[in-house]
Design goal:
Layout (H helix, E strand, L loop, with lengths): L3 H18 L6 H16 L7 E3 L2 E2 L2 E2 L2 E4 L3 E7 L16 E3 H5 L3 H17 L3 E5 L4 E5 L12 E5 L2 H6 L1 H8 L1 H5 L2 H7 L25 H14 L9 H8 L14 H5 L13 E5 L1 E2 L2 E2 L1 H8 L7 E4 L6 H12 L1 H5 L1 E7 L10 H17 L6 H7 L1 H8 L2 H9 L1 H17 L1 H16 L2 E7 L6 H17 L3 E6 L1 H7 L11 E5 L5 H16 L15 H16 L1 H10 L4 H12 L6 H11 L6 H10 L28 H14 L7 E2 H10 L4 H13 L3 E3 L14 E4 L1 H8 L5 H7 L8 H4 L8 H22 L8 H22 L1
Parallel strand pairs: 5-7, 10-17, 13-16, 13-17, 14-15, 15-16
Antiparallel strand pairs: 1-4, 2-3, 4-5, 6-9, 7-8, 8-9, 11-12, 18-20, 19-20
């Protein structure tokens, strides 16, 4: 997630790009992917995971569904141009909806369409957009007032969008939807009055942290050796041999119980389901025997599913399988890796995109041009012989050979122009002529919308059953779970599926850092670097980091759990440390060179992650969550997340129901300790959106109306509960983002620079929370602030004692 100022800057860039294309016709697909996608993600702070494209409901399709923990808005994308013809003289952002509805037939049809979508899906907000204008309105009202009698937010141009960015941000951004600002504006409801945060008094909050040239250089180089290295084709095999970590071993640093980790995919099947089999694809002993047998038998008449959460390493496993684990299999095969996560194919028809990529890889990797004359003639040799013997052609060769040849060319051209059938025939010919298997991996399908994932599966089913190939397709567990249901795309098939659990994060980090040192030492050269690049300082810092994670298990506990065991996220956390402006790297190097070692304290790693590139903590850009933030001006609101996490953590520790708690139980318990339904609804939204818990369908939208839906705490949720809330470093950071309900305390909590004053401020904040806890009179079986308050006080006093000792 990105911050407000960055979003505004992104809008300025989009406006500039749009001005260039203003006079050109942009079709609906290009409108969406050139502008609307960018407006939603780059300017209004929606994450890709919050947006489902081309969602289907009872045969109807919308362009986007925006979701928090449940669907909150339908966004209908229309072709750009003079589409929204708005009444002249209207300047206000908020206008009666009927003023733009009744006199414009295009708008009328679109709004009617959106209202139908919203009504059928029980979604309240509808948004009409053509890439440079917005009309947002309440399509589903429960106050007996027809939607057309209400007001709408109308943004007539990108100029107005920019000029009124704050108001539009408050209404249409992800943050605005979380606090229901648009509904409050359009329904005339008064906003919940919350005290301003300390951040509102800080100039240019959250600010950009200045870094010295040494820190900037470190960031650039660490990007190269930790991230960009995986893109180097010349060293791909060496990288996989050195860095690949096999799945199977359970983490020693995970806060989620080993019993839950070992049964993480059990929920994928319902009791009595016999339409699928499931096993782990690889362990420390090697790849599954069933997978080996599948290759040995050459063909499978159904696609093989690779099921795993985002970030567990499905793509890396595919590469490792091809290049390292089973090279003999793939030496006798022609294999394709189709990356559906590539933005270049997003706007294309799914099947057309896959066909095009197979043809491209045949040419570029295997030097096979399936449209080349000699190949085509060999491919259709029998068909061509039959054609030549046809009564209308055979004698033509004797009468007019040139004319006969033209007929022959027309016949073969017609074959080639049927792109799908020609590729199918070509692969069959290659398979038979070269005695090779055809293997295709449809990868990164889990980065696409649910609709795209189901489409990709149906395509893979066609390939597996009718084409001469073995087909693998990677999907998310939640998609597998949902589509195995009666109405899903997988429901009619006996599916072969392998799971890919995450490898141990500590092993991944150690191997990746050790491989990076092969680069920093000059043992391995990167093609994109010149020979003068100096790596000596980074080499030393990697030494420091490797030593520190060996002697200080707190570091790996932090990385493992805050990343939620997502490999990409874990590597990103490590990279943030090396390039951080909040860590004195030169001091670390000096101590290392002088004493031969340096043990990184947790607070240094924690600061690099909490603040990122900012001076102050920003809830929209940090990987750390402010669990004390409030959505209602009530004393008990500061603790609702922690009580929720305490309940979920108890189920996790004791492995009750595999850690799952029903939403009904959550409501019952939280209401029992004094929380209202609105507070509970809001905190579930907030916590799920920030991945503090997962659902029994992992990744599905959270529907709190489904009382039987189950939720389970994540590693990140447990880490915030058990470790962060009694840490001075954490409390010191989130103070700026927490509304203070009592004026007497608010006057004492100021923006401080010196460590001494920040420690005093933390004591004031702790005392404030102590008072709020007493005022709320919360009696909870699963959480007591008093225990954590005491531990926080000890941490503050420990730091004060260190400061005194230094003096």
């Amino acid at each position: 997630m990105i911050n407000y100022e960055t979003c505004r800057s992104n809008l300025e860039k989009i406006k500039s790009d749009f001005d260039i294309l203003e006079n050109s016709k942009i079709n609906e697909a290009n409108t969406r992917f050139k502008f609307i996608d960018s407006l939603l993600t780059d300017c209004l702070n929606w994450e890709k995971s919050d947006i489902s494209c081309e969602d289907s409901y009872e045969g109807e399709y919308t362009d986007y569904i925006l979701s928090l923990f449940r669907s909150v808005a339908v966004v209908e994308a229309k072709r750009s141009g003079n589409y929204f013809e708005l009444p002249t003289g209207k300047q206000s952002l908020f206008q009666p909806l009927k003023s733009v509805y009744k006199d414009n037939i295009n708008i009328k049809k679109a709004i009617d369409q959106i209202m139908g979508y919203c009504h059928n899906r029980s979604i309240q907000i509808g948004v009409l957009c053509n890439g440079w204008q917005f009309i947002a309105f309440i399509a589903n009202r429960n106050d007996s007032i027809p939607p057309l009698e209400g007001n709408a937010l109308i943004v007539p141009s990108l100029e107005v969008f920019l000029a009124e960015f704050k108001t539009i941000w408050n209404c249409l951004s992800k943050t605005g939807f979380e606090s229901e600002q648009l509904q409050k504006k359009l329904l005339g409801k008064s906003e919940i009055e919350l005290p301003s945060k300390l951040s509102s008094t800080i100039y240019q909050y959250p600010g950009i942290k200045n870094r010295n040239p040494f820190q900037i250089e470190l960031e650039i180089i660490s990007d190269l050796v930790l991230e960009d290295v995986i893109k180097e084709k010349d060293i791909e095999k060496e990288f996989l041999i050195s860095c690949y970590c096999k799945s199977g071993a359970l983490s020693n640093y995970s806060l989620v119980s080993k019993e839950i980790l070992s049964t993480r995919y059990n929920y994928l099947f319902e009791d009595g389901d016999r339409k699928a089999s499931l096993q782990q694809i690889a362990t420390k002993k090697g790849i599954s025997g069933e997978l080996v047998e599948l290759f040995a038998n050459s063909l499978s008449k159904r696609p093989v599913l690779l099921v795993g959460d985002v970030g567990v390493g499905k793509s890396t496993f595919i590469d490792y399988l091809r290049l390292v684990e089973a090279p003999k299999v793939f030496a006798k095969a022609i294999s394709f890796k189709i990356d559906l996560g590539s933005r270049a194919i997003v706007a294309l028809d799914m099947k057309k995109a896959i066909i095009g990529l197979i043809k491209e890889q045949l040419l570029n990797i295997y030097n096979i041009d399936i449209e080349e004359d000699d190949f085509v003639r060999h491919c259709y040799f029998q068909d061509l012989q039959k054609f030549k013997s046809n009564i209308r052609v055979k004698r033509l060769y004797e009468i007019n050979n040139d004319k006969a040849l033209e007929k022959e060319i027309e016949y073969l051209t017609e074959k080639v122009e049927d792109e799908v059938e020609h590729l199918k025939a070509s692969l069959g010919y290659i398979c038979k002529n070269q005695s090779k298997q055809i293997i295709i991996f449809i990868d990164n399908c889990d980065q696409r919308s649910d609709q795209d994932q189901e489409s990709a599966f149906l395509i893979s089913q066609e390939f597996a059953s009718d084409w001469p190939m073995i087909v693998f397709i990677s999907i998310r567990p939640e998609t597998f779970h949902r589509t195995k249901k009666e109405s899903g795309a997988l429901s009619g098939y006996h599916t072969k599926a392998f799971t890919i659990p995450p490898p141990r994060i500590d092993d991944v980090i150690k191997k990746r850092l050790e491989f990076a040192q092969k680069i920093t030492s000059g043992e391995i050269a990167l093609s994109r670097l010149n020979n003068n690049t100096s790596f000596s300082k980074l080499h030393s810092l990697i030494d420091v980091f490797l030593y520190s994670i060996d002697v200080n298990q707190n570091l790996l506990t932090f990385i493992n759990n805050v990343s939620n065991e997502n490999i990409r996220k874990a590597i990103e956390l490590v990279k943030k440390f090396f390039g951080s402006g909040h860590v004195d790297m030169e001091k670390i190097i000096d101590i290392y060179e002088r004493e031969g070692r340096y043990n990184i304290p947790l607070h240094e790693l924690l600061r690099s992650v909490i603040y990122g590139d900012n001076i102050h903590f920003s809830p929209t850009s940090s990987d750390i969550i402010n669990v004390f933030d409030i959505r209602y001006p009530k004393a008990n609101e500061h603790f609702i997340i922690l009580i929720l996490l305490g309940l979920l953590d108890d189920y996790s520790k004791n492995s009750r129901n595999h850690g799952f708690v029903t939403v009904e139980e959550v409501f019952s318990y939280l209401q029992g300790v004094g929380y209202t339904a609105n507070q509970i609804d809001s905190v579930l939204n907030f916590s799920y959106n920030r991945k503090l818990f997962e659902t029994s369908q992992k990744g599905d939208q959270l529907d709190v109306q489904n009382s039987l839906l189950q939720i389970r705490v994540t590693n990140s949720g447990i880490y915030h509960l058990r470790f962060l809330i009694h840490s001075f470093t954490y409390i010191d950071s989130i103070i700026v983002d927490t509304p203070i309900l009592e004026e007497s305390y608010k006057r004492e909590i100021l923006n401080e620079i010196s460590i001494e004053k920040r420690l005093d401020r933390a004591i004031v904040f702790k005392t404030y929370l102590d008072n709020q806890w007493k005022t709320a009179n919360i009696i909870s079986t699963y959480f007591s602030w008093e225990t954590y308050s005491s531990e926080l006080n000890e941490d503050i006093e420990r730091i004060k004692a260190k400061l005194i000792k230094r003096e």
